[in-house]
């Protein structure tokens, strides 16, 4: 997916070594990419999907993965 002009952003907690993902709004959805590979694959999510994931992350549902 080649889309120019997006405002990609990543968490302020990113440690600067490229070990993070970046998000960008696009046509009512949220795009996600690997910050180490900005020309690589892009995942598309609905806002509801991102909201559900954030809710789970805030609730600690994924803590065992890190």
From TrEMBL:
Residue ranges annotated for the DUF397 domain, each copy included: 6-58
Protein name as it appears in the record: DUF397 domain-containing protein
Protein species of origin: Catenulispora subtropica
Lineage per the UniProt record: Bacteria, Bacillati, Actinomycetota, Actinomycetes, Catenulisporales
